[in-house]
Please model this.
Amino acid sequence: MRKTLLKVLVTLLLAFVLVLSTLPYWVSAVGIPRELRVFPGMELSLPLKPPLRVVDQDGVEVTGLLDTDNLGSRVYRVSLFGWLPLTQLVVDVVPLVEVFPGGQSIGVLLNAEGLVISELGTVVDLDGRERSPAREAGLRPGDILLAIEGHPTRRPELVSQLINSLAPEKRFLNLQVKRGDSILNLAVEPAKTWQTNIFGQSSQQYLLGILLEDPAAGVGTLSFFHPETGRFGALGHTVTDSLGRPVQINKGTIVEASIDSIRYGTRGTPGEKVGFFHGEQDIMGIIDSNSSLGIYGQLVGNTARSAFSRPIPVAFTHQVKVGPAEMYTVVQGTEIERFAVEIVKVVNQTKPGEKGMVVEVTDERLLRETGGIIQGMSGSPIVQNGMLVGVITHVFVNNPTKGYASFAEWMVYEAGLGLSEQNPAKQASSREVFLCA
Model:
């Protein structure tokens, strides 16, 4: 009798351990999320059947719709048989956010802080010695050149003029550079050399042995704008320099752009929009943020355009589904057009990240004219079921018909609209090779 009882107890214990070890499977199998965001009054229920039970934070069992009438967070607990806890669900009821989808081509003028020193080189001085003045002074590739003898450096072509106007009077020039979060002052002795121009004329020039880069301009796409506040978002990814580092903005703007031609994209060679913009007379907005989810700022005037006559809701991440959708972008001139795409993969993101979904171009005309997703389409809005669900961010180099897109929900938070969220965190990169679109 004792042996039989012992066997029963051991069996029950093993069964209990087995149930506990498979709890994650139960949670995953029934599709119970950890957190959901919903609009006020939005119908929401969990399709759970016995032995699963749901109780609210007051311990009352919920058998129908969850409470979404009032703003705020509510915690629901899911259990097995009513006594074995499985997980909890946090439902955040947040304000409805409606925006105008963009699609308009823009020129991005970041007016970045200083110039990036991308390379250090050697020069031959008048005595025939090979020197590297910048390296001798302690400069490094990646440093940001802010000023020379107190004169700000904004344009690469003017740096040579500045050096040659100062060097005859000073043996050493003081360079102010930014390295990481530190500001350094370094004394550089320019090398006096012979230089020959394109007409074969030689002259003496002072050189530092540096190659400068201005990461300040490019063509992209306006993603959305908010009619009440004038806040806008664009690109869907951060703007970086040639070393892959985010560009720090001093005073940036977006301006109207027109697409002149298309460089067709093929496998291994991404295509590109070729556009032009005129500068400050066409300013659309002021940039105040360059984040991992795009650039954001404040519109100026009423030059921002949309293919929509009224704003539409921004979808929550859990509302985005695999299936057909539309992308809005410009392929010629300034006309925003609608193209058919397919959302082929949706990533289950619980925090902001760049690559929230994989999108495939299915529109025959767009495939014929561009080959798929091309550079300059970054920020092109994606609409599904009447809601803004995301924006194009990257193209797959080995398959330009496909690319990544960011969830629109994360972008509106980054723009300062709706619910405040934590800082975006990039998802781990996949094995696919991709470029910013």
Notes: Confidence is low (pLDDT under 50) at residues 25-30, 420-432. Residues 23-93 form a domain with the Immunoglobulin-like fold (CATH 2.60.40).
